[in-house]
Write a structure and sequence with these properties.
Helix 1 packs antiparallel against helix 8 and helix 3 crosses helix 7. The protein is about 40% helix and about 25% strand. By secondary structure, the chain is α+β, with helices and mostly antiparallel strands. It is globular and about 40 Å long. The protein has helices at about 5-25, 40-45, 50-55, 60-65, 75-80, 90, 95-105, 115-125; strands at about 70-75, 110, 130, 140-145, 145-150, 155-165, 170-175. It has one domain (about 5-175): FAS1 domain.
Length: about 180
């Protein structure tokens, strides 16, 4: 009876092992920035200036600079540009601060969750793992080939393109899309 579960776990482990080389050698300013806070690493990244602006606009910059640990699923600037509906300029308008804060905190999970921990949780969940975000809604992690895919409340998907950028107060995983909480 446990044989299929063991096979599923071995499959995910193999897939993750194969993708680890690609993930750690990706050309991202976040990789190798360990020892800094999540905010400092984001500030030093050329690919995450919109995320930094969102942190500042929602007054979460201080929280993400000091405490933790946190796991941040960090959309790239391109991911924000591809966000349908409101433009980034509209989101950064002070009248949208609550909506923007909900959006940002939906990309944050309390605690340190490395890619291997996500993978282990998927093994325990028979190929699927659910995480509760700081915002309160959940995101679901699954595998597609060798990629870890995050799915939001609306079924939108984001791929982790750079995993395990360890920081002094948590870990950052770069994602290729903005995911949306159900309450936004």
């Amino acid at each position: 009876m446990k044989y299929p579960t063991i096979l599923v776990c071995l499959f995910f482990t193999l897939c993750f092992s194969l993708s680890a080389q690609e993930i750690t050698t990706a050309n991202s300013p976040l990789v190798g920035a360990s020892g800094e806070s999540i905010v400092n690493s984001t500030a030093n990244s050329k690919n995450h200036q919109t995320l930094l602006a969102v942190m500042r606009a929602t007054d979460l910059e201080e929280l993400l600079d000091q405490s933790g640990p946190f796991t941040v699923f960090a959309p790239s600037d391109r991911a924000f540009e591809n966000l349908s509906g409101k433009s980034v300029k509209d989101l950064l308008d002070p009248k949208n601060k609550k909506e923007l804060k909900d959006l940002l905190t939906y990309h944050i999970v309390a605690g340190y969750i490395s890619a291997s921990k996500i993978l282990k949780a998927m093994c325990r969940g028979k190929g699927k793992a659910t995480f509760t975000t700081v915002q309160g809604d959940t995101i679901t992690a699954t595998m597609k080939g060798i990629d870890i895919i995050l799915t939001d409340s609306f079924g939108n998907k984001a791929t982790i393109v750079v995993a395990d950028s360890n920081q002094k107060n948590g870990v950052i995983h770069e994602i290729d899309s903005v995911i949306l909480p159900g309450k936004i």
